[in-house]
Design a protein that fits this description.
The complex is a heterodimer of chains A (about 270) and B (about 190). Chain A is α/β, with parallel strands linked by helices. Helices cover about 40% and strands about 20% of the residues of chain A. In chain A, β7, α9 and β8 form a beta-alpha-beta unit. The N and C termini of chain A lie far apart (about 50 Å). With about 190 residues, chain B is α/β, with parallel strands linked by helices. Chain B contains six helices and nine strands, in the order βαβαββββαβαβαβα. A seven-stranded parallel β-sheet of chain B has the order 3-4-2-1-7-8-9, sandwiched between helices. In chain B, α4 runs parallel beside α5. Chain B is globular and about 35 Å long. Classes of the chains: A alpha/beta (about 270), B alpha/beta (about 190). At the A-B interface, α2 of A face β5, β6 and α3 of B.
């Protein structure tokens, strides 16, 4: 018998979400998921997680609203500038040796990281030979990423980050400001494929030279982290690169030996050619 | 009513945190049986400054918490800057980059509420000096599941607001000076 009713409700809701819509959050770290569900209940005015579950099953409009609580990450362009500096200074020289490149931004959310990479690759003269894949499980977030519009009050931080990352141009070259919004140049998306893809349930879809997946796996439990890392391993070319968030690591993974630490501090790994 | 014997300690601190923690952490012995989780508000770009600072001054093991690591006694875990730190019900740590709570990441409330779920009445929570109201809701959640709530005496705290808000949200909390807290932590460890 369990005392904590909310924990029971969380499990039941996640089961319902999976059975009804095939969104699988059952192996996400529980404490964060529970926080987000309670926040969704409060802000969407449900009296309990069970009431939210009832609406989820019977009211089709509930799903996209709930997904925004369960998945959307507020990020920044060039978040952790030293990561992008390491990509620019240490990874790009390797990528330059390939005639064509495939880059996967896994869990791209509303696109901040994607636009960072597109700008960085343009600055480095690699954009024309690169195809970017930007994937997420949240269709609303993908639409936002594809629109490339960000609130103007976030741009100052983005600009600072871009400069700290070693940016060779001015961020203002890439957007036009109007009505409190920064609208990013659509040519930045001309080499981008946006796609619905789940690291939990979907498979390999191409051979990548670089995969960047930051602060996504941190929400997974260990077995699910291993699945995602295995998927990345299979998706990478020989000596392909994998970039993670600053507090993510392959150290505890069953796949740890399939990668070398390319930049320990910035959590950039390289697939060991085998 | 006698308190349950604590199985873990959570501490939250903001303005004046380092001085306050230097009064209570150095006395903890290397074989202290409990894990100690600490959230201190630090700017997002300060990478791993707290653990090295305290490591050299403490007998107990001090480290920055890593995602998914298993919790062990005798270790002080500091939340990394720019990440929330949570305790899972299987007694592992998880980190998150969810939005700011009380304008903070890491936030004290996030740690306290998740730890209250994981440890229930076996949790001891301490709110130290600070100039905001983070931790008040977390301490109330901890008290609600039967944990032991402790607040630094606002009269002697470097910044009185945070202990004040915590006391208002959790009036049953024990009020202590830093010196009393230092000896109480030792006593709870020996319980």
């Amino acid at each position: 018998m369990r005392d904590n009713i909310e924990d029971i409700e969380v499990e039941l809701l996640l089961a319902a979400l999976y059975q009804r819509y095939h969104y699988d959050f059952r192996h996400y770290a529980k404490a964060s998921i529970k926080r987000r569900l309670i926040q969704a209940c409060n802000q969407l005015h449900f009296s309990s997680i069970s009431a939210l579950q009832d609406a989820l099953l019977h009211e089709p409009t509930t799903l996209p609203r709930l997904l925004n609580y369960l998945t959307v990450q507020v990020s920044e362009m060039f978040r952790d500038p030293t990561y992008f500096r390491a990509i620019r200074e240490r990874v790009i020289p390797h990528l330059r040796t390939y005639p064509s490149l495939k880059i996967w931004i896994a869990g791209c959310s509303t696109g901040e990281e994607l636009y960072s990479f597109a700008i960085l690759f343009r600055e480095e003269g690699l954009e024309d030979r690169t195809l970017f894949y930007a994937t997420d499980i949240n269709p609303t977030a993908l639409q936002d990423a594809e629109a490339g519009i960000f609130a103007l009050d976030r741009i100052q931080k983005f600009t600072e980050n871009h400069q700290k990352s070693g940016g060779r141009t001015s961020l203002s070259d890439y957007y036009t400001a109007n009505y409190g919004r920064a609208v990013f140049d659509k040519s930045l998306r001309s080499r981008v494929v946006f796609s619905d893809h789940s690291l939990v349930t979907d498979a390999v879809f191409g051979e990548m030279h670089l995969i960047s997946c930051r602060n996504v796996m941190i929400y997974f439990d260990r077995p699910l982290q291993d699945r995602a890392i295995g998927l990345f391993h299979e998706s990478l070319s020989r000596k392909g690169f994998l970039g993670l968030g600053s507090k993510e690591s392959l150290r505890f993974s069953v796949h740890a030996n399939d990668f070398s630490e390319f930049d320990r501090e910035e959590k950039i790994y390289q697939r060991i050619a085998a | 009513m006698t308190d349950a014997i604590p199985k873990a300690i959570v501490i939250g601190a903001s303005a004046g945190a380092v001085e306050a923690l230097l009064t209570i952490l150095p006395d903890l012995p290397k074989d202290y049986p409990l894990p100690v989780f600490i959230v201190v508000h630090v700017p997002p770009d300060r990478r791993n400054v707290l653990a090295p600072l305290f490591e050299s001054r403490c007998k107990i093991t001090v480290k920055e918490a890593e995602d998914k690591e298993t919790v062990t006694g005798g270790v002080v875990y500091f939340a990394p800057s720019d990440y929330h730190m949570l305790v899972e019900e299987d007694f592992s740590v998880s980190l998150s980059s969810d939005e700011l709570v009380n304008h903070s990441r890491p936030a004290i409330d996030v740690l306290f509420e998740s730890a209250a779920d994981a440890y229930g009445p076996g949790l001891l929570g301490v709110i130290l000096t600070g100039a905001n109201q983070d931790g008040a809701a977390g301490l109330a959640a901890l008290a609600k599941v039967g944990g032991i709530a402790v607040v630094e005496d606002p009269a002697t705290a470097y910044a009185a607001q945070m202990p004040g808000f915590a006391l208002a949200a959790c009036p049953t909390a024990k009020v202590m000076s830093l010196k009393q807290m230092a000896s109480s932590l030792l006593a709870w460890g020996a319980a």
